[in-house]
């Protein structure tokens, strides 16, 4: 049935109608109102239940007093998540913020944000990689996720279905348990509007990041289908990409596309699940075609600093256990000269401690930081000027968000930069 005041083509079931009428409380009414309004704006036919929600808009640096007030208001009205809901990174390590030199005034406000989310029934996991800490969506499962790299990976690598939600709309979906069915929830929205032939070799995770930067600039918010002419053999037909050695490559690829453009879903011929099943049928009529034959322009755009750096950052998106282990191997018997921040989910860092991976990292001078990352942390009081990173996403955002010049390259070069203070060309 259609609710009076809603678009006639937006079908609501009795439970949705009841929420809109206030039968489930004022908090649920506000959430339903927001979800339905978005459905009307985007021409959705109905609402679809979601398996999980990931909420961005967590760092107090971004939310400010107004955002905290909004969360407290909804919590006071009795709003509470009905489905599993997790948080994106906050502005601080929620446990070790004092030893990291975070100003107490900022930390207190950030902890108040986390408490407001707790009252709303949202788990304060504070990671941009929920798929690494137990929340691995099924193929075809509908979600309401909001962090750009998590959205890209869920859609592309897992074949789940989510639009790139805003923080408030994701929270509303968690409270209602549904989101509007439009965009990437629909088969038509998942077809490729651009086909890109990648003719240059991809030898490292950094190459995938540089490629992602170039694809994002070309595609904007379109869905691209990549044909990798020199695709690593191990990627083809890989049944479990999340547990494969290529997860960091795909994670970095999608994160870069989302940062330089607004790509929320990409396909790789023969690699990602929908491309393996549907092949060229994924290409929409009238799709544009182009070629990327050289990664050098991507590397050039991501390098804005000179060779000397005063901080090295690994873990944007949050580092996996495998990435922590790789960094530990590279640092064996060495010591850092610059600040080396490795950001990861708290659960991943705890597992690294149990496995003996954390100890050599910290002995070498690395700082393992949970719950946050450079993009959303209050960096201004540290006085850093230039960051070396293996994250194309961070290299995109650091100049504007963090006031940092950037040096971009593979993990090996970043570890060398941490030891020497100099980042060599990739």
Structure write-up:
The chain contains 15 helices and 14 strands. The N and C termini lie far apart (59 Å). Helix 1 packs across helix 2, helix 5 crosses helix 8 and helix 8 packs parallel to helix 14. The strands form four sheets. A five-stranded parallel β-sheet has the order 12-11-10-13-14, sandwiched between helices. The protein is an alpha/beta fold. The N terminus is likely disordered. It folds into three domains: 172 residues, Aconitase, domain 3; 106 residues; 118 residues, 2-Layer Sandwich (Aconitase, domain 3). It is globular and about 65 Å long.
Question: Total strand count, please?
Answer: 14
The CATH superfamily of the largest domain appears as Aconitase, domain 3
Q: What would you say the CATH architecture of the largest domain is?
A: 2-Layer Sandwich
Topology order in helix (H) and strand (E) letters: HHEEHEHEHHEEHEHEHEHEHEHHEEHEH
Q: Roughly how many Å apart are the termini?
A: 59 Å
Q: Please give the share of residues in helix.
A: 25-40%
Task: Provide the β-strand percentage band.
Answer: 5-15%
Cross-sheet strand order for the largest sheet: 12-11-10-13-14
- Count of spatially separate domains: 3
Instruction: Give the helix tally.
Output: 15
**What summary fits the major beta sheet?**
5 strands, parallel
Secondary-structure-derived class: alpha/beta
How would you state the average pLDDT, rounded?
A: 95
- Poorly predicted ranges (pLDDT <50, ≥5 residues)? 1-7
Under CATH, the topology of the largest domain can be stated as Aconitase, domain 3
Q: What is the C-level CATH assignment of the largest domain? A: Alpha Beta
Name the overall outline: globular
